[in-house]
């Protein structure tokens, strides 16, 4: 991996077991499904996976190449599995699966700032004074449920040194659906029973705790004690599913297909979490903030992205999950068509691309167009608001409904936008 630092210099976000289990505690999800029900769940439960290429991936080196132009850079555009649709040669494995993808090449997301851009892309809203809108992960966890899973409904998998929104992504939807962050894709600390604690000793300790808890509840039952009891019970259910975090359970052949690097491990973990009933998973891959040596960095970064992304699409399809799982590849912005004097590309939100697959998405569709040098949208300009409506519609939700925080109607998605009908099946 080439060395690269976050341009925004964000601090790492650590997650404790208490924070993890606390976030899961109030979800109110049920216990375990039967084997048959679990199999049906994988096919029918709607889920969302966001693959976030942090820093701002270049649309010109991915989904909307402009070879042989002053802005195009050194890479070729290659034919894909859809006649007439070409993408960058840096994505040869994705190219063979474009018939499963929908490409939106006409996004104007307004802001060239990392933090603001990420928030705009994840909320489908421009920033407004006086209100913070929930991110797509919290909305998906709230509206899709995932009642057969004891796991949280909203999980983000962060790279080493990455940071999330610290549970603030749910805003008025509340902490029940706030994101639980897994730093470096690792399970929460202390999730597994210590090796030096025998199973029978742990069971005896738990029986004693229950006895004391029941005695206390008989005399001092309150809303606080009830909340604690539910919290602990939820934590127990999570612990029983701890194996889902252990990607060593996968065969070496599967692990090799995804890649032994961090992003490959994280994407494989994401598939396991989705399979276990989690409604929303966000996997971040960094860092695409290529103000210098854009082309070398994209060779490296996309080389890491391409093969595991293809493996994920194949796995979801083979397991009967792709038709119920929306996969979105996004960033907080794109990169400038103009190549700077450091052979880099700078921040560019005016005309860039995202890719979608699965659920209610029409594979092989291409929406929007930029001009010959990629400097402007020339057909079907869309915003993050249009995308947000599209995400919800793709997983069977009504994007025109309202939330009612404090009895005040707040539209689930931006009422000034609508779904991109051309890519909905």
UniProtKB/TrEMBL annotation:
InterPro entries: Alkaline_phosphatase_core_sf (IPR017850), DUF1501 (IPR010869). PANTHER family: BLL7424 PROTEIN, DUF1501 DOMAIN-CONTAINING PROTEIN. This is DUF1501 domain-containing protein. It comes from Gemmata algarum. The lineage of its organism: Bacteria, Pseudomonadati, Planctomycetota, Planctomycetia, Gemmatales.
């Amino acid at each position: 991996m080439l060395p690269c630092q976050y341009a925004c210099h964000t601090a790492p976000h650590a997650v404790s077991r208490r924070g993890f289990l606390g976030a899961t505690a109030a979800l109110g999800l049920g216990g375990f499904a039967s084997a048959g029900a679990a199999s049906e769940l994988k096919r029918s439960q709607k889920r969302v996976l966001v693959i976030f290429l942090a820093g701002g991936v270049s649309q010109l080196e991915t989904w909307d190449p402009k070879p042989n132009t002053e802005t195009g850079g050194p890479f070729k555009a290659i034919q894909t599995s859809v006649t007439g649709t070409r993408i960058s040669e840096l994505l040869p494995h994705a190219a063979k699966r474009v018939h499963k993808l929908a490409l939106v090449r006409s996004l104007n997301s307004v802001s060239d700032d990392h933090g603001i851009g990420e928030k705009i892309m994840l909320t489908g809203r421009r920033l407004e004074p006086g209100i913070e809108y929930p991110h797509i992960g919290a909305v998906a966890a709230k509206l899709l449920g995932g009642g057969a899973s004891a796991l949280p409904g909203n999980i983000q998998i962060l790279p080493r040194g990455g940071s999330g929104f610290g549970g603030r992504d749910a805003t008025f939807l509340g902490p029940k659906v706030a994101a639980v962050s897994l730093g470096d894709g690792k399970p929460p600390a202390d999730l597994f029973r210590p090796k030096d604690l025998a199973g029978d000793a742990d069971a005896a300790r738990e029986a004693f705790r229950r006895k004391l808890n029941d005695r206390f509840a008989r005399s001092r039952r309150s809303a606080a004690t009830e909340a604690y009891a539910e919290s602990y019970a939820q934590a127990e259910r999570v612990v029983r599913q701890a194996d889902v975090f252990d990607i060593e359970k996968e065969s070496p052949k599967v692990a090799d297909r995804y890649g032994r690097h961090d992003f490959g491990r994280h994407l494989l973990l994401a598939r396991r979490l989705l399979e276990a009933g989690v409604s929303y998973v966000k996997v971040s891959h960094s860092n695409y903030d290529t103000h210098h040596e854009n082309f070398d960095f994209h060779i490296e970064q996309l080389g890491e992205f391409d093969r595991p992304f293809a493996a994920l699409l194949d796995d979801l399809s083979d397991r009967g999950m792709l038709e119920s799982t929306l996969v979105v590849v996004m960033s907080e912005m794109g990169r400038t068509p103009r190549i700077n004097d450091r052979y880099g590309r700078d921040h560019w939100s005016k005309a860039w691309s995202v890719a979608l697959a699965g659920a209610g998405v029409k594979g092989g569709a291409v929406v929007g167009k930029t001009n010959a040098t990629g400097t402007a949208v020339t057909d079907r300009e869309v915003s993050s608001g249009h995308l947000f409506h599209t995400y919800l519609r793709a997983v069977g939700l009504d994007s025109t409904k309202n939330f009612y925080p404090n009895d005040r109607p707040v539209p689930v998605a931006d009422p000034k936008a609508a779904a991109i009908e051309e890519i909905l099946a």
